[in-house]
Specification:
The complex is a heterodimer of chains A (about 475) and B (about 375).
Chain A: H1 8-12, H2 14-24, E1 30-31, H3 34-37, E2 54-56, H4 61-74, E3 78-81, E4 98-101, E5 108-112, E6 117-121, H5 126-133, E7 138-139, H6 152-158, H7 165-168, E8 175-181, E9 187-191, H8 202-206, E10 215-222, E11 224-225, E12 230-237, H9 240-252, E13 259-264, H10 265-275, E14 284-291, H11 294-310, E15 315-318, H12 322-333, H13 335-342, E16 344-347, H14 357-371, E17 374-380, E18 388-392, H15 399-416, H16 435-438, H17 441-454, H18 468-476
Parallel strand pairs in A: 2-4, 3-4
Antiparallel strand pairs in A: 1-2, 5-6, 6-10, 7-11, 8-9, 8-10, 12-14, 12-15, 13-14, 13-17, 16-18, 17-18
Helix pairs in contact in A: 2-4, 9-14, 10-13, 14-15
Chain B: H1 6-15, E1 20-23, E2 37-40, E3 47-51, E4 56-60, H2 65-74, E5 77-78, H3 87-90, H4 98-103, H5 111-114, E6 121-128, E7 133-137, H6 149-153, E8 161-169, E9 171-172, E10 176-183, H7 187-198, E11 204-210, E12 215-222, H8 224-237, E13 245-248, H9 250-262, E14 272-278, H10 283-288, E15 294-298, E16 303-308, H11 314-318, E17 323-329, H12 332-337, H13 346-359
Parallel strand pairs in B: 1-2
Antiparallel strand pairs in B: 3-4, 4-8, 5-9, 6-7, 6-8, 10-12, 10-13, 11-12, 14-16, 14-17, 15-16
The chains are: A alpha+beta (about 475), B alpha+beta (about 375).
Chain lengths: ~475, ~375
């Protein structure tokens, strides 16, 4: 993966930049020793590493503003970092960049159960937002798999989703307001505890902009009361076509499950070997979860199992209690760990129209065979957000390149059938060079024009999202 | 000018020599009036894709909302954000279009539960002020590929580009519905009661208060047994606020909430109409100092419709507050004198002006409508 060459002039001024940053931040907030910077050399896309010039850990909006003002004056690039869980390389540094970590921005600032929102500093982890309100029975809905570790700042940057977004939406649907620092150090608020924008939807524009438009330091998030209960049902089928048909029929029947998860045979086998959840060995497994009171859950599951039964499942298992529910989810929740135990893997997240599911699964199988690599599929079927896991061995020379080439072909396939490159992980560096598969040049020009407005010098996370050749003239200017 | 293809639309905008006034069905006369040539999207018509099993509908921007609703109804689906119909309130005629709904981010009472038009938008095709055809998003539920210009275009009132096609998430219609009513509550008590209901697990999809009638309304929807169950639980929960009447029935509930959605109470009454979006618990105090003749609360108190004496500057009466006030209905003189949209802070105003200069470098799209 190509990254821009670091600016030698900035590298030579490192001591000066570090001095200036240390002057505006509390002691211990600037990390500049080579060994310590190793911790910041990559995010969860571990195949690519590069330690930054230095890393800063500001603890307030004012400190973030001071850091950005200095970097702006010095012409030093800045790479913001949430918790470093990006699978797309969204927080990968260049050697001439200051990495701005949000780890110390973790306070809860305000909670209102009457008005159903919480205001937090943006470095707070996703799950700990729910942790701050669950005593009153509330929760924050978006639930990316990394929710234990990932930060709200990163969730906003990538517009993160999760398993339950079929019902609750993704980050942009649950974000009410932000406090943000622009690259020149200007601080502004967008939105607040009220709904919708009074003018342009700049909040919607910021969300998913991959840290390229500003650094979000505070977020106002919508919180909801938890449902009375939730229960899953598991069903297995002999073909993915049939499983896809079941998903369609459930959705058409007017039941809106909170989650519909899909696993194919390679994935089932790996999970079973790893977690021993008691899954049936079949071509396609669905886990469908609904919410409500016990009686409401029974009624919804009744409708779902009626549909499921019509299609001759090899297994149809309703959870009767929390223990059984836990076992149904056990395999799915350990899917990535199971894969990691047997192989290196690359996780894609292209999204497709649900109707294209059988065709796309078949084509992925064919492509995998052509490349001589195995692919396991686990994904959010209700919204068409796929997660093909390409298994490879990083120690075999050439295999990573082969894996990336297969990944690119799979993502091209997603776009070809009417889908997109990324449903919830973001473009980062990983899918940057495929952007022209989905968008035409004017579409990217329009997006880059937005960055021109927010960050005219292209200092903020500039080597991401857009193909380097397309953004070259702007980054050089 | 009424182009019938996207290419024609691009041609017209690319070659326009002066300002253009963009209209869908022409049912909203928002913004500050300015002289301009009329460009109608009503010729860009038709549903291009409806996949009920994928909960997706794609339509050309000039497609009447009624046509979209009919297609959805045939598959037992609906536009869950429940866009309001402005005709009664504004005394306009014409046919609301789906592009107009998106351009105005027009939503209804269910916004409080499921989101606004912007939350249901999956993709747009748009012609910007330079005549460039642009696309963003697509037709799938989850898409974070590149910047989200879909939401930027939604609610931009045609000032950044003219929509040619929109792609929407749709949802299943419900089997049953009921309206719960409380009587005689003060505004503050009403907002408190609505908050208690919205902060429950019982999935309230409408929360409104009419101070003139002294009536506070909640809506619940879903499968029949579930509606009955949740109505009962809400009755218990709201007991401290007085007796709760339950009016079951899908048609009656639909009629009640269509009237709330369209603010029909203000249709035949003189005065300006303002729309205020605030934190629900702030609303009663703001209303008290607004100088309004009367108000209607929706979104659990987060949305307030105010009937104001003609020419009154609501924002001056309120003083600084968190949220935004929009002038929805007023004579030309008032619309010239008062900003229709809430003035932005200087930083956001600079960013908005920057975006306008990028997407409409000649300043020809709906000039004066948003700034």
């Amino acid at each position: 993966m190509e990254m821009p060459d670091p600016d030698a002039a900035i590298l030579s001024r490192k001591a000066n930049v570090v001095d200036r940053l240390q002057a505006v931040l509390p002691k211990g907030s600037v990390i500049h020793e080579t060994t310590e910077l190793r911790a910041y050399e990559c995010d969860a896309l571990t195949a690519y590493t590069c330690p930054p010039l230095c890393a800063v850990l500001p603890g307030s909006t004012e400190e973030v503003a001071a850091v950005l003002s200095i970097c702006h004056e010095e012409g030093v690039p800045v790479v913001p970092r949430g918790a470093g869980t990006s699978l797309a390389g969204g927080a990968l540094a260049t050697a001439d960049a200051v990495m701005l970590g949000t780890a110390r921005l973790n306070a809860v600032l305000e909670t209102s159960f009457d008005d159903r929102y919480i205001r937090v500093q943006a470095g707070r982890t996703n799950l700990s937002v729910t942790g701050a309100v669950e005593d009153e029975g509330f929760f924050y809905a978006p639930d990316p798999s990394s929710q234990l570790a990932c930060a709200i700042a990163g969730n906003i940057a990538m517009n993160s989703g999760g398993a339950h977004c079929l019902k609750y939406g993704v980050t942009t649907n649950n974000l009410l307001g932000v406090k943000m620092v622009l690259m020149d150090g200007t601080v502004t608020e967008i939105g607040g505890a009220h709904l919708d924008a009074g003018s342009y939807d700049l909040l919607g524009l910021i969300c998913g902009s991959e840290g390229q438009l500003g650094v979000v330091t505070e977020a106002t998030l919508r919180i909801l009361h938890k449902p009375e209960g939730a229960r899953p049902v598991l069903m297995g089928y002999d073909s993915s076509e049939v499983a896809g048909q079941v998903v369609t029929e459930i959705i058409k029947a007017g039941v809106l499950p909170v989650a519909i998860e899909f696993m194919d045979r390679p994935c089932i086998e790996a999970c079973e070997a790893f977690a021993k959840a008691g899954y049936p060995m079949c071509e396609a497994l669905l886990i469908v979860e609904v919410e409500g009171s016990d009686a409401e859950i029974d009624a919804q599951l009744g409708r779902i199992t009626e549909i499921a039964a019509r299609h001759e499942p090899v297994e149809l298992r309703e959870a009767r209690d929390a223990d059984e529910a836990g076992r149904i989810w056990l395999g799915r929740k350990s899917a990535f760990g199971a894969m990691g135990q047997i192989n290196d893997y690359m996780c894609l997240d292209g999204t497709i129209p649900v109707s294209e599911l059988p065709h796309v699964l078949r084509r992925i199988g064919e492509l995998a065979q052509d490349y001589g690599l195995a692919v396991a599929n686990v994904f959010h079927a209700g919204d068409g957000n796929m997660h093909p896991l390409i298994l490879y061995n990083a120690n075999t020379p050439g295999e990573q390149e082969k894996c990336e080439a297969l990944g690119a072909d799979i993502l091209r396939l997603c776009v070809e059938v009417g889908g997109c490159l990324t449903g919830e992980h973001g473009v980062g560096i990983e899918k940057r060079d495929l952007m022209l598969v989905q968008y035409d040049a004017p579409d990217l020009e329009a997006q880059m024009a937005v960055k021109d407005v927010f960050d005219p010098a292209w200092l903020l996370n500039a080597a991401k999202v857009f193909p380097l050749s397309v953004s070259a003239s702007r980054r050089a200017a | 000018m009424t182009p019938t293809t996207e290419a024609d639309l691009a041609e017209i905008i690319g070659h326009a020599s002066g300002p253009l006034r963009i209209a869908g069905g022409g049912t909203r006369s928002c913004g500050t009036p300015a002289p301009a040539e009329l460009l109608s999207t009503s010729g860009l018509r038709g549903i291009t894709l409806h996949e009920p099993g994928a909960l997706t509908l794609v339509a050309r921007a000039g497609t009447p909302v009624s046509e979209v609703r009919a297609a959805l109804r045939a598959e037992n689906q609906r536009l869950a954000f429940e866009p309001m119909d402005h005709r009664a309130l504004l005394g306009t005629t014409g046919e609301p279009t789906i592009g107009g709904v998106v351009a105005g981010n027009v939503s209804g009472p269910r916004r409080i539960a499921v989101g606004a038009a912007r939350d249901f938008m999956l993709g747009v095709r748009v012609v910007d002020g330079a005549g460039r055809i642009l696309k963003n998003g697509g037709r799938v539920m989850k898409n974070v590929t590149g910047y989200d210009l879909v939401r930027l275009m939604t609610g931009s009132h045609g000032t950044l580009g003219v929509l040619s096609e929109v792609s929407l998430k749709v949802l299943p219609d419900v089997e049953s519905a009921a309206t719960l009513t409380l009587s005689g509550l003060s505004d503050a008590q009403a907002v408190e009661a609505l908050s208690a209901a919205l902060g429950s697990p019982f999935e309230v999809t409408g929360a409104a208060h009419d101070p003139e009638a002294g009536k506070t309304c909640l809506r619940i929807e879903g499968f029949a047994d579930s509606v009955t169950y949740r109505a009962g639980r809400l009755q218990e929960r709201l007991a401290p606020f007085g007796p709760v009447e339950v009016h079951a029935g899908k048609d009656a509930t639909a009629a009640t909430w269509a009237a709330i959605r369209d603010v029909t109470d203000f249709a035949d009454r003189a005065g300006d109409v303002w729309r205020l979006s605030v934190r629900p618990s702030d609303a009663p105090a703001l209303v008290a100092r607004s100088g309004a003749e009367t108000v209607r609360y929706d979104w659990g108190g987060g949305l307030v419709w105010l009937l104001m004496p003609e020419g009154t500057d609501l924002r001056a009466n309120l003083g600084p507050f968190q949220g935004h006030a929009t002038l929805i209905r007023a004579g030309e003189a008032t619309r010239r004198a008062l900003p229709v949209f809430q003035p932005e802070n200087p930083v956001l105003a600079r960013l908005s002006a920057g975006l306008r200069s990028k997407f409409d470098p000649r300043g020809i799209l709906n000039p004066g409508v948003m700034a």
